Amino acid sequence: MVAKGAAMLDQAGAELVKLQPGDADTASLLLLMAQWVDVGYRNHEFLDAPLLCFPEASRSTLSIGDFLRLRMVEAFRALSAEDLDTAIETLDWALMTMQKLPDPALEALAHFWKARAHRKRGEYESALEHIVRARELSQQSRNDFEFTAVIEVHESWLLFQKGMRKEAWQLLEHAEAVLKSTDHYVALGNIQSARGRFVRRTGEYKKALEHFERAIALYSQSDPKHRNVARTLVNAAYVKRLLALQLRWKIEGRVQRKHNREDSVRRPETGGGGTLRSRYQKLCEEAIADLVRAREIYLLHGQRSGVGNVMLNLGRLHLDRGAVDEAEHEAGEAYRLGHERNDPILMARARILQAAAENVRVEEEMEDGVDTAVHANRARDYSDEAMALARQTQNRRLVAGACIAVGATAANDFFQDWEAARSCASEAANLIGPGESDHMVDDLVLLKSHIVEAAGIHDMLRAWSEGMVGAKTFQQLSEEFAEIVIPKVWEREGRKISRVAQSLSISPKKVRRILRNTGQLNGA
Q1: What is this structure's pTM?
Q2: Is 348 domain-assigned?
Q3: Is 34 helix (H, G, I), strand (E, B) or coil?
Q4: Which residue has better confidence, 168 or 2?
Q5: Are 254 and 268 in contact (CB under 8 A)?
Q6: Co-location of 396 and 480 in the same domain
Q7: Do 103 and 246 share a structural domain?
Q8: Beta-carbon neighbour count of residue 303 at 10 Å?
């Protein structure tokens, strides 16, 4: 059905440009064209020529219904062009107007588009409110099951953000059951993309990559250069980078074990280190190729925020291999694009990367003492700004990432502010949802390990015994104490969770949570 509709639009292409405001159903036709663009037909620029047929002088002659539909088209065009403020403002007006001109189908579409605009701004509560209303209105019509299924795909992601994993999976499964017999490849691709992001949170990177590859294949059946192809290529590159990091940790671990051998006999390396290095290099190359392709597609569609995300992922790859200058350049350009688009999420992520780059300079003492202070202060400024930007959104993972950035800066070799670092680590741990075991948990574990190694367990316990607990609650103190004791008992009890639970008279669930938070269960 989608392919047939696209073919009809192709045939009518020349006639669509000749639309006139006085023609019957012109505004309704234009709104229908916008919906087809949303399904995957071309991009928002397809709407520009028909919109020119409605100059300001002619709009006063339109009926209120036609004017409403025209404004809806302009709202969608703004949403697609990442002008989120205009989209939300226009859709607010449309929804107010519909209170006097009830139209459930049109209202459902307005709520749907408005939910997506709020989601892009990180305003998840507002997004969920509008997406639920869109689904309810669509269900009331009882004749557009496909549109309801498309809405459910977007709703599932918002539920997942709230930690409602079971409900999110169920919505995806229901939507797929409705859409699997259709050629709505964009929606089907969105389902696979969402699944990839869901399992990525659990650290199942290879499985996530499989979902992303299926999503790309589905999107490409609609259009090999669809903007969602670019988004999924960025997600795939991100996962490939994380897989490459895991390989690098294995390589470094083998090198360290080799150096730590007590015997003086030099044995040949039989562990396949060369194979690991070639796999590591291949993953990095594939990630870069994905990002280059994604940037080309984003530029084709004028998606500047998407280009910013490409830059951030390239910056992370640069920082992984120690190319700090290149990482800082990509992060700076991403921040500039985010600032131009008033995108707090992109700006916060850019500042987090810039803080990480400055902390690398501090730790490696790349400059003399004076410049080390400069880099340390820059890291603090960047991480503080990242926190301020992240708190403008309802993206808890973004806030958690900013907390880790602030904590890592407090714990760098220049500041060594262990109390501030511990406070940030504690807040980040509270923000990371149960069952999440991805790279953010690894970053948090590294921060906690650095704090314990540098500040010392004995100093911490001595401070507590003297009543020096800062602004921490008893619950926070208990949690920190558990993270010191439980891993030790776990080692003593032969790494048996049930034995630890029995020995300490606590639930196995809490033992698993503490071990996961300290990196014992995820190989960090």
Answers
A1: 0.86
A2: yes
A3: helix
A4: 168
A5: no
A6: no
A7: no
A8: 23
